[in-house]
Amino acid sequence: MFLEKIKIFSKFKKHNQSFFSNRFRSNSTILVEFNDFKSSHIPISYLSNFLSKKFKANIVGYYNYYLIVSSLKLNIKKKMKWFISNLLSLNNFGIYKSFGCKQIIKPQIKNYIYFKYKRINTKPDILNICFDNILVGDLIYDTYLKKFNKPTVDLNDKKIYELIDDFYNLYLYWKKYFNENKVKSVIGVHTPYSFGLILRLAVKKNIPTFVTSNRFLYRLDKKMQFMHGNFTNYKNIFKKIRPNLREKAKNISKTKLLLRFSGIGGAKTDLITSQNSSFTNKKFGKKLIKNSKRIKILIAPHDFFDAAHVWGKNFFVDFYEWLTYLGKISEKTNYDWYLKNRPNHPGKFKIYQPHTNRVLKLFVKKFNKIKMLPNNYSHNQIISEGIDFVLTSHGSVGLEYAHFKIPVINATNNNPHINYNFNINPRDIKHYKYILNHLYKYKKFKKKIKL
Measured between alpha carbons, how far is 370 from 363 in angstroms, rounded to an integer? Predict the structure, then answer.
């Protein structure tokens, strides 16, 4: 396995060295995120070289793992490891240098400065934090949840305030860098968490800013600073595609969706986070959905630690607050409430799911009108046993359950289905509360997506 990895690295570097010939002596810079996401190295190499040629600028890699992965304050051991790997072009350093990186920089904070912010009394106060009128509160909030495995922000936890100060110092480093260097473009791979900090600053300065991977390429701007955030204009985008290609795209989408309903997961069905499908044909031994005349609701929760603000603000500050709100609603209604987490993830995505499961088990103990279904309880079985409504923030169930004419109610207007009418999209939290308390009025909502 190790030797095979060495061969692949060597082959890729040889390709880069022969294919990319842009070697400018310039005082202008293309900043490209230095990371370990192997599948992103190919699009990064091509995009950075295209921009290098366009702007006649040097390619410079930048370390972007601070705060979410590593501490802003490095010890001697980590500094030495970085220095040696960079000097000898080991591993990813060799890959980046092979496609033209002149240097790979790691921010060094020399004078640590504490951020002077107004008193934080509420969680929304954190979400509203700005540096020089650049909104960064959502990045701080989501980084805290993921880094410390917290389902919600604890205002009494000193770590959140330390994280704010760290964000501020990293911001000051990049602010100074942009002021002292002619940065022509910035390339990243993620817009949430601390990954997005440098991208927000670049957008503010009207510098061409991109995020890319082996699956997508987006240009960010002041109107849309989130990857995959163009769903607000899906209809118009689709109309601009040539008719024959539109038909082809619809057939591909139909095939993928039907494969998903047949129990297939993974990339074939655009479920990149899991090979395990939620729509297996395997039936759970015991029927867990009650036979009753009451309205039946399924809550489809999200991982508490997984970028709650991936597309901006929602009706609730995080997924935990959303669930707590639903728990309180459940106690005042005469509905049958159910909750089901996604099937157990394999690979790297399984790290956070046990934490989510733990929080959900405590949640249903507190709000005992809500029954938790097993993770492997198939959506196909839930549908066959009869469910009337599904609640999500912005999950894929909005698309999936619409196929079966089952109403899905979203808890944010920043969801991928907002441009269409096959979901129920409340205007705000007040409207959301009204809908939940008057679901009998919405039972005739039977919009089906057209395949």
Answer: 9
Tell me: pLDDT of 346 over 70.
no
Are 195 and 64 spatial neighbours (Cβ–Cβ below 8 Å)? Answer: yes
Q: What is the pLDDT of residue 451?
A: 52
Question: 434-439: long-range contacts (C-beta < 8 A, 24 or more apart)?
Answer: 435/409, 436/326, 436/329, 436/333, 436/409, 437/329, 437/332, 437/333, 439/295, 439/297, 439/335, 439/388, 439/389
Name the amino acid, one letter, at 250.
K
Listed residue (391, 320, 331, 335) closest to 367, CA to CA: 331
The predicted structure's pLDDT at residue 265? 78
Torsion of CA 433, 438, 440, 441, to 10 degrees: -100
Helix (H, G, I), strand (E, B) or coil at 220: strand
Which of these, 340, 352, 449, lies nearest to 392 by C-alpha position?
Answer: 340
Q: How confident is the model at residue 266 (pLDDT cuts 50, 70, 90)?
A: confident
- The whole model's pTM is what? 0.94
SS3 state at 89: coil
Asked if residue 447 has pLDDT above 80, the reply is no
State how far the Cα of 48 lies from the Cα of 96, in Å rounded to an integer.
Answer: 10
pLDDT surpasses 90 at 60: yes
Cα–Cα distance, 22 to 51 (Å, whole number): 10
Closest CA to 32 of 56, 60, 67, 2: 60
Q: What is the pLDDT of residue 276?
A: 75
Say how many Å lie between the first and final Cα of the chain, rounded: 43
Query: What are the tens digits of pLDDT across the range 352-404?
Result: 788 899 999 999 999 999 999 999 999 999 999 999 999 999 999 999 999 99
Residue type, 190: H
Q: Give one word for 277, left, alpha or beta, with left for phi > 0 and alpha for psi -120 to 50.
A: beta
Q: Are 312 and 226 in contact (CB under 8 A)?
A: yes
Interatomic CA distance for residues 90 and 139, integer angstroms: 31
